[in-house]
Amino acid sequence: MTLSTKHTARAGAPTPMAAALALALGACGSAWAAGAVDTSNDSQLPAISVFGDAISAGTAGRSYINSEDIERQQADNVASLLDTLPGVDLAGTARPSGQSLNIWGFNKVQDVKVILDGVPKGFEKYRQGSIFIEPELIKQIEVNKGAHTSLYGNGGFGGVITVETKDAQDMLEGDARLGAFVKYSRHSNNAEDDVTVAAYGRTEDGRFDVMAFSTQRTSDDLRKPDGKPFRFSAIDAPSKLVKLNVRLTPEQLLTLTAMQSGSTGWGPFAAMGEDVPTPTEAEIKRYGLEEAWQRKAVYRDQDDDTYSVKWQYAPASNPWVKLTATAGYSHTDQHDKRLPSASLGSYLGSLGNESWASYVDRIAEIRNESVFATGALSHVLMTGLQWHKNVRDTLMYYPSSTALKDPGYNYGYFQPYYMPSGRQETRGLYVQDAITYGDVTLTAALRHDRVVSAGVPNVASRYNSALPAAGHDFSEKTHADWSPRLGLFWKASSALALFGDLSRSWRAPTIDEMYSNEYYVSARLGSNTPGTSRDLLVERVTAARIGVMLHRQGVFQERDDAQLRVTAYRNRVDDNIGPRLGILVEGYVPGSGAGLPAGLSSYRNLAGLRTEGVEIESYYNSPRLFASASLSSQFGSRRGSQRDPWGRNEPVSTVAPDKLMAGLGWRFADLGATVGWQGRFVAKQDRVLPVGNVYRLPPSKGYALHTLFASWNGTGGFWRGTEVRLTVDNVFNHNYMPYLSEAVTGVGRNAKLSVSRKF
């Protein structure tokens, strides 16, 4: 786990960073020159490393969060779990469904791929969060930062996050065949009650195992550090998971997974940011306090379902065959509705007075891994085929007095012009060969993707004009290209390894980017940029990372473990896609209306950008003591600007501040107890866009947050199987405002107590 802390060199006094790094790095430093140590211990220590327990080509560049990390944090959402990793930051707020992920400055849904039990999860609804996975159901999370994997194509510039859910084998202990689990949690800040129940079992011969898992979160609004309510942050979110494993033969495993979650409640239209404006005294007097607040919000009903089937075949006698076939289905649906007393003509740009959004993903994949040798070279050859189809349906109701009477608005019912309906189908194939000679592994990979996109013509003719000058074209468009990758890994000794990756990848424009358009009735009654954007070029990234990994056991005593990883990276993006703003064409004077071609597209390719940075991760683990520290520093620059590709360069607004995460803990094995501290130190961010820029995030101040945690496990007798955990976030109730939250204040002190029992 990353018991980490955020900080930056610009945040102020360096004492916390120096202390944390000295603790973890100093623990590692005295042992690198020592010889190999026997790693066969009688018992295994709990894993504390987030980049694997061994130095290998398979773990280079990857980070992991295991079930112990998840239990320790007692987080409400997956994004806050991942926010403890260097280079990974939560974007959005603590509101339900208000979180997205930012990796190395990339924050779009298409730039951070999330894979749940083999099924892609992506929700691109305007101004909403993108990831809705219940943490209680998760076994492990793997993060591969950067565009350095060939297993997933068309995007993922920031990285790929794969989430694996629990199954019966994770819950059963020893030789037990049946079991049950109950857990109750209470959070002090928002009076949150979480109830989890599970039942699981396996047959005597081990061929079948099954688990049914259910959790329910309910709460009031969160409280800010000053004690004021964080309006519309209450939770009412049930989740369910059923998982069946069938061992068809000793060489074949069939896994079926069904996961359902949902949430209901009042919330702001933009769940990812913005506090709701306070009602005026006149509004409170007219509508009453509760309705006056609700008129500023929407009632949101959300469902998120995931189903997958996975078949694995690995004959022990044939190293050429290790087959995995996966089929999956994901459906995320949101229905928003405003009160009848809300304004009827004020929400054209925020999905009207009622809206429906449905996102469906279907995937099928077959993958094979072959292990063989050619002379002195050993090979791990991976080949695969993938098919992925995404279909999105959108509709909104805009009951303005004009729209209700106007057939051009379809009498108020139409697709949001900035969030059109459409489909995107991707077919990909890849081949990857990891070739090892001695202590050096060269990984060469090549992937091809073909992406076919099609929009759905708007039912409102204002946004679906047949006039050529409008440029409203929703027809099909195909993009296809190759993505090559090279990776080099050298294990210089049992304790030291170096690695590097160079990748070139691309992504096709999304449905939003190609088929969003603005209204057109005539040259006099229409936007300067009314057209759809089917002629966009694909975005491309050239990504590089290099790093060093150090791992030693027996540092200060026989059964301890120390690890260090340093990574430097750079990403160069060309032809990045953005809305057409400001200087619409080269030489255009804003507001002049002169010299513009008809049907100008709503989106365009910009001049490009780059992000780069350095990460340091370190961990120490012993039977009694464990510690960690991670530091990340990012920088980003855009060629030109989003409003003027020919103008002056500007910062990449989505680059997160420097951060340091640090932690220290103690185990008391004879008592079954653990106690510890976790710190988060975040720097100020003052490299922001100019005032007036539509994508500007306001500058933020540096801050420090502290967490204390403790746990106790019953080890025998009546208490065996009982676990008690206490986590206190923001111990000093510090007032802070995360940069990527769009100037929304963070959450006050929160004591989280849980009691669980296995039967």
SSE diagram, text form:
Blueprint: H1 15-29, E1 62-65, H2 67-73, H3 78-82, E2 88-92, E3 99-103, E4 112-116, E5 119-121, E6 138-145, E7 159-165, H4 168-171, E8 178-187, E9 192-202, E10 208-218, E11 222-223, E12 229-230, E13 236-249, E14 252-267, H5 281-287, H6 289-294, E15 298-313, E16 323-337, E17 354-374, E18 377-397, H7 401-405, E19 413-414, E20 422-437, E21 440-455, E22 477-491, E23 496-507, H8 511-515, E24 539-553, E25 561-574, E26 577-579, E27 603-605, E28 609-621, E29 625-638, E30 650-651, E31 659-668, E32 673-682, E33 703-713, E34 722-729, E35 750-758
Parallel strand pairs: 4-7
Antiparallel strand pairs: 1-6, 2-3, 4-5, 6-7, 8-9, 8-35, 9-10, 10-13, 11-12, 13-14, 14-15, 15-16, 16-17, 17-18, 18-19, 18-20, 20-21, 21-22, 22-23, 23-24, 24-25, 25-28, 26-27, 28-29, 29-30, 29-31, 31-32, 32-33, 33-34, 34-35
CATH superfamily of the largest domain: TonB-dependent receptor, beta-barrel domain
The quaternary structure here is single chain
Class derived from helix and strand content: mainly beta
CATH topology of the largest domain: Maltoporin, Chain A
What is the tally of beta strands? 35
**Rg calculated over all Cα atoms:** 26 Å
Mean pLDDT over all positions: 89
- Helix count from the secondary structure assignment: 8
- Uncertain segments: 1-49
Shape: globular
Q: What profile does the largest beta sheet have?
A: 22 strands, antiparallel, barrel
- The total domain count is 3
How large a portion of the residues is in β-strands, by DSSP E?
Answer: over 45%
Provide the helix percentage.
under 10%
**CATH-derived architecture of the largest domain:** Beta Barrel
CATH class of the largest domain: Mainly Beta
